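Our collaborator T.R. sent over the components below with a one-line note: 'Predict the complex.' Nothing else. No constraints on interfaces, no templates requested, no preferences about which chain binds where. So this is a plain run: every listed entity goes in together, and whatever single assembly comes back becomes the starting point for the next discussion.
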Amino acid sequence: MSDETLPAFASLNVGDEVATREVEFSRDTLVRYAAASGDFNPIHYNDAFAQSVGLDGVIAHGMLTMGVGASVVEEWAGAGNLVDFQVRFTRPIAVPALGSSVVRIVAVVGALDHDVKQARIDVTVTVEGAKVLVKAQALVDCA
Amino acid sequence: MPVNPETVGRTYGPSEAYEVTRIKIREFADAVDARSGAHFYPDVARAEGYSDVVAPTTFAVVIAQRAEFHVVVDPEVGVDFSKVVHADERFTHHRPLVAGDVIQATVTIESITQRAGISMVTTRAELTDVDGAPVTTVLSTLAVREDA
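Returned assembly:
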């Protein structure tokens, strides 16, 4: 944790929108994430393979979606200041061979624990209005 | 062959040590659109109180997934990787990961629950530093379709 960058706990209110971002997922994005993460499952770059396992085509890594969600919160909270982050993946993000899918991330103060000065940040991630994650929650210790 | 619930409690590792580097943190930060300077520049990271550039929140997956792979390929567990969907993921950081850390991971099969033709396989990866101190706990759940 870095005290230098932590948000001031007293300034937070439940319901505050603390960060938002739109990110485009293209095939380039997926290949870059595959290399960075070491996750080379071909469902994330090969349409024919994806279809052979019952998908309509290539989908994004769930961990890419989670990682981008974390980045939006972390830019606000300060690097290294998320002590906990969890998500449940509910809907895969289809990524076209050309062009991109637009992923919208909104981070809101979900709860405040005044005893330990910990903020729960709830992250909503949608594609064309449909949620792709549920129970996406980050914890930030502001003490 | 369905997933074998009798393998709950099985442990793998500790894995080969993984050395966290500045260039890998930068590469991962770029890939997940992480923008804080402390992921990229050692002087910014030091000004924020870190010994070196700090890894993005989900960077630990790079280390955890290598270790979790042992579960997926264990024939006695019986996961058919072509029928796997990632269901849940959780990172609990006991301290931030920074460049220069040398990390080992030990993975345990935490639970296997089966219903409606789907097995939910939850693993817990404990990442520790060279002193054996806890760095990050990674909980990951795979949903495995058991259709014939």
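Summary for T.R.: The domain at 9-141 of chain A is CATH 3.10.129.10 (Thiol Ester Dehydrase; Chain A).
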